[in-house]
Design a protein that fits this description.
Elements: H1 5-15, H2 24-44, E1 49-54, H3 60-68, E2 72-78, H4 81-86, H5 88-94, E3 98-102, E4 115-121, H6 130-139, E5 141-152, H7 157-171, H8 179-188, E6 192-199, E7 205-211, H9 220-237
Parallel strand pairs: 1-2, 1-4, 2-3, 4-5
Antiparallel strand pairs: 5-7, 6-7
Length: 238
């Protein structure tokens, strides 16, 4: 049986009370956040941008984005209400440009073409339907927007030992995607200019980047089909 959404929700709800004090904040989350912020800054050049952080937890990363990139407006979405509650003080200190929302990564509660940048840091391996989650992240990107998805890099022996052995033994049937699988997921979601960078804090991570199409996918095939159907029905009626 695969990893279930209810398992992820229960696990993170229990973890929420000590999440901000976890050693992972130092070992993994902090280095990952710094790598993401460097990349966002290189993309945005400090111009005003709208950022969505998927799997935002208690808002640690959202607050770091606002601190380092004051012209960014940040939304955070997380499945677990307990995580958002634990970060209430942080969200309120961040002010109006930072907004937490409870929601599912596979059904993001945002309109299409809403964000310049979508981030997802160290939570993707918990998502049961990873293909659908990437499609949703792609959907809410503005044309030319960037998806920055960072997760454990398990393609080398050290990463395999950490993520496929140790992490899986504690977190259950989670799925750390390979670098090749990330490229497949991005390609299937219509993201282009795929770039992958491996970072080596105490635990190796891979930052996967893709760009939303500048020109929306053409709908001429659908239009053509409807035109043929209309023509057929018209001829039948004559």
């Amino acid at each position: 049986m695969g990893y279930l959404r209810s398992q992820a929700s229960d696990e993170f709800d229990r973890w929420s009370e000590c999440y901000d004090r976890s050693i992972l904040q130092w070992l993994l989350f902090g280095p990952s956040h710094r790598a993401l912020i460097r990349r966002i800054r290189s993309i945005s050049a400090d111009r005003p941008i709208d950022v969505l952080d998927v799997g935002c937890g208690t808002g640690v990363f959202a607050r770091r984005i606002r601190t380092c990139l004051p012209n960014a407006r940040v939304w955070g979405v997380d499945l677990v209400a307990g995580m958002l509650r634990q970060g209430l003080d942080r969200w309120s200190i961040a002010g109006d440009p930072t907004t937490p929302v409870q929601g599912d990564s596979e059904r993001l509660p945002f309109a299409s073409s809403s964000f310049d940048v979508v981030t997802c840091a160290n939570s993707f391996h918990h998502y049961p339907d990873q293909e659908r989650a990437v499609r949703e992240m792609s959907r809410v990107l503005k044309p030319g927007g960037k998806l920055l998805l960072l997760d454990g890099f398990r393609d080398r022996p050290w990463g395999w030992l950490i993520f496929d052995c140790f992490v899986a033994s504690f977190e259950g049937d989670v799925k750390h995607a390979s670098r090749r699988r990330f490229r497949e997921l991005f390609d299937q979601a219509g993201l282009g200019h795929i770039r992958q960078t491996v970072h080596n804090p105490p635990a190796p991570v891979v930052l996967n980047e893709g760009t939303a199409p500048v020109i929306p996918r053409p709908h001429h095939v659908i239009f053509h089909d409807r035109t043929l159907e209309h023509a057929a029905s018209a001829s039948q009626g004559s």
